[in-house]
Amino acid sequence: MSETSSGVSGRPDLKRFATWDTAIIVLTVLVLVVASVVVDNFGTSRNFTFMVLDLMPILLIALPMTFIIVTGEIDLSVASTLGLTSSLMGWFWNHNLSIEMIIPLCILIGAVAGVLNGFLITGLGLPSLAVTIGTLALYRGLALVVLGDSAVADFPFNYTGWVTGTLGDGSIPNVLIPIIALAVVFGIVLHATPIGRSLYAIGANAQAAHFSGIRVARTKFWLYVVSGAVCGLVGVLWTLRYSSARADNGAGLELAVVAAVLLGGVSIFGGKGSLPGVIAGVVLLTALQNALRLEDVSGQALNIVTGALLVLSVLLPNIVTTVRGNWQRRRLRQSAAR
Amino acid sequence: MFRHRLAVTVSAASILTLAVAGCGGTTKESTDNSTAGAQAPASANPNAALKEGLKIAYLPKQLNNPYSDVETSGGEEAVKELKGEYKKVGPNDASASSQVSYINTLIQQQQDVIVIAANDPNAVCPSLNQARAAKIKVVTFDSDASKDCRDIFINQATTEGIGQSLAKMALEQAGANGGDIAVLSATPNATNQNSWIAVMKTELAKPEYSKLKLVKIAYGNDDDQKSFQEAQGLMQSYPNLKVIVAPTTVGIAAAARYIGSSSYKGKVAVTGLGLPNQMRQYVKDGTVKKFSLWNPADIGYLAAYAGASLSSGQITGAEGDKFKAGKLGDYTVGKDGEVVLGPPTEFTAANIDQFNF
């Protein structure tokens, strides 16, 4: 990396990734505009509702995931935590607990799942990739133990209807409220508080962060707890949206989340990225899939598009960095020769 | 210090949750879940002509599944006959919720009919009801959605139909003097197989089946090797066995492979439910004379005609509604909007080459 040559502007990394964020946001707006014009039935209020419902689980989980990846760690157990809370929700409901109690209980259980992740990673110092691959299997397995192959479906309509419904008679989906509320909170914490700045410091250099007084282990621990709690909440919303508590709910969602976060410009190595970029990444992926489906593009082709986007999002910033580095080195060599 | 504070936080949260819980609220028992159907009952006009140009979309459990490909191929044929627009969409994985995005897309595209095999009877319900609110007719096949959110379910076969077919084929193949028969089933708690075997037993109790004696129900767990060993075991325990009835595609193929390669070939008949492609060689070499299964292509075919009749206003999906389904003939809607395809198709050396699935 060209630390010395770009050190002139003071905050070079922030600046470079500001451009990647801007690029993604511009691209997202472009896709939305073009799709509204070109794709039949894309720009309708009903389709807007459908899209918000589709992006809800990805976006909500992407918020804590962004924090975790910024610190240079990862949480792959998110979708399994979602599945576990969804099955437990069904189990509790079958055992006649009230839904008003089940919802906080599920969020709490999600948080406990996060506590285990956090303890293994920060308490025992195990690598987060290995730990969360393990708990990915563990939590999904527990979900299957709780509910097996069965599904619980008779949740009260005033709850299931709220999740799929819209505000008043308008076209603004109810779930947009928790989405916006959480996005604002996470955005402020990441970009306007010392906590947020410490996350970048940890991701950039955990040791330096430690020596400058940041409590690295404790911060990471709480990130996993928050991630688990959010997954618990999404487990509840997912179950209510589909009126179906199942052990396989959300299977594979962790890949969509990580893809969206990386597409949004967060570096998988930590220390870089912004929440507006991530939100744009989620919207871009969802809108693109929605538009392509409306154009009758097959499921396989959809996967190819998503995969290609992900590869590009990792590749492009690296190419830009390399090219810029080469160009600067050549310029240095030229000035030395002169 | 750190641990201590964590413990305090977690226990505080738990106490809070339990406190909230104490206040009562909406529970399973306090909830009345008799959701009413989304649509007001319209009146059927049996004389209405079938509309042309209907957009009929198939949404199988997942794409690239050979069995559902055969089903939808029947649908494609029927939609062509109806001069409609055929379309097949679907997820790559058979997960419960992945179909919902596709249903939403079909609503946006303003299809006339959605023919769906539901991955989860309830997860697809809110979307299907949105579709019906948008005047789209919903026909289910293969696996039904909750009956509140579809118009018609195409049932490939009734439990009675299959059980009777199994008993009838056993009688035909046991020979003039009858004798001992055995069943090679899937797992001991397989719901479908058990209900078919129950019907078969009721049939066998009738006087016309008095020559047959069911000596054993063996379980091959739908595992090829286990089924093969069970077939072997049956012949060792009951050397006078005349027929092995296997109401599972795995079991019948394994039993046919064992009998066909043993000295019992030609003396013991193998029958049951099987796939023509798996059974072809055993039918050709004479090990198997006859077996049956519903024809999956007919399921998709019937679904298209049911959807077109709904969309044209000929029927509403009410019990007793009658409609024509091209080459398959006349059908009547039964209780809960079910339409039964009919008795299973029987496969013999004479017709097996007409089927490819």
From TrEMBL, chain A:
This is Autoinducer 2 import system permease protein LsrD. It is a multi-pass membrane protein. It comes from Paractinoplanes globisporus. It comes from the Bacteria. The lineage of its organism: Bacteria, Bacillati, Actinomycetota, Actinomycetes, Micromonosporales. The chain crosses the membrane at residues 20-39, 51-70, 105-126, 175-200, 221-240, 252-270, 275-292, 304-323. CDD domains: TM_PBP1_transp_AraH_like. It is found in: Cell membrane. InterPro entries: ABC_transp_permease (IPR001851). It holds the Pfam family BPD_transp_2. Keywords: Cell inner membrane, Cell membrane, Membrane, Transmembrane, Transmembrane helix, Transport.
Automatic annotation (TrEMBL), chain B:
It is found in: Cell envelope. Its main location: other. PROSITE patterns: PROKAR_LIPOPROTEIN. InterPro entries: Bact_Solute-Bind_Prot2, Peripla_BP_I, RhaS, SBP_2_dom. Residues 56-314 form the Periplasmic binding protein domain. PANTHER family: ABC-TYPE SUGAR TRANSPORT SYSTEM PERIPLASMIC COMPONENT-LIKE PROTEIN, D-XYLOSE-BINDING PERIPLASMIC PROTEIN. Keywords: Signal. Residues 1-21 form the signal peptide. This is Rhamnose ABC transporter substrate-binding protein. SUPFAM superfamilies: Periplasmic binding protein-like I. It comes from Paractinoplanes globisporus.
